[in-house]
Design brief:
Elements (H helix, E strand, L loop, with lengths): L6 H12 L7 E3 L2 H11 L3 H5 L4 E3 L17 E7 L1 H8 L6 H11 L3 E6 L6 H12 L3 E2 L13 H14 L16
Parallel strand pairs: 1-2, 3-4, 4-5
Helix pairs in contact: 1-7, 4-5, 4-6
Length: 181
């Protein structure tokens, strides 16, 4: 989790994964992410850490997830600031988030980035293109209006459910996929 607005996306993912038997979660949150967590959700870092199986410090470059020998299904950066996107796009592993993302990309595992800043400038777009060219998936959390959701919770669940579905997480009942007309 980084300093972009949308802390609820990371929190909701951890809540869903917490009840999944076959999934182990590793959390890394930036300092700006902690500020957003407090501001947006009135939540403390310690409360967030309780939702994860393992919580790592942002500067713990020796953490298990900083090595390709540590097997994972992938990584989700939710929300992702443009600063973190730029670090990932340019292989600038200056903290554990960007280092772990670099490892995921070099090991050809799934990286999903949920950018939450608009409007976009050309540098943002080029950084998204760069991450995509390296095999990452850019997934801005945008609601699907065909579901006719009338609540913020339903819209958040839809984005979170679609991302977790990419990893094979059981998201039954979280959202309704498009089935055609």
């Amino acid at each position: 989790m980084t300093g972009a607005t949308g802390a609820i996306y990371g929190v909701r993912m951890l809540q869903i994964l917490q009840v999944q038997k076959d999934w182990e979660t590793h959390l890394v949150i930036s300092s700006a992410g902690v500020l957003n967590l407090k501001h947006e959700l009135a939540m403390q870092r310690s409360e967030l850490s309780e939702l994860a199986d393992v919580a790592h410090g942002i500067n713990d470059i020796a953490a298990s997830i900083s090595s390709g020998s540590f097997k994972t299904e992938g990584m989700i950066i939710a929300p992702c600031s443009m600063k973190t996107l730029a670090a990932v796009a340019h292989g600038f592993g200056n903290n554990l988030i960007s280092r772990a993302a670099d490892v995921i990309l070099k090991e050809r595992r799934r990286l999903v980035v949920m950018p939450r800043e608009t409007p976009l400038n050309l540098a943002h777009i080029r950084n998204m293109a760069s991450v995509t060219e390296m095999g990452g998936i850019i997934f801005p959390p945008m609601p699907a209006f065909y579901s006719q959701s009338d609540s913020l919770t339903a819209m958040i669940n839809e984005s979170v459910g679609r991302v977790l579905d990419m990893f094979g997480v059981n998201v039954e009942g979280l959202y309704t996929p498009w089935a055609g007309l």
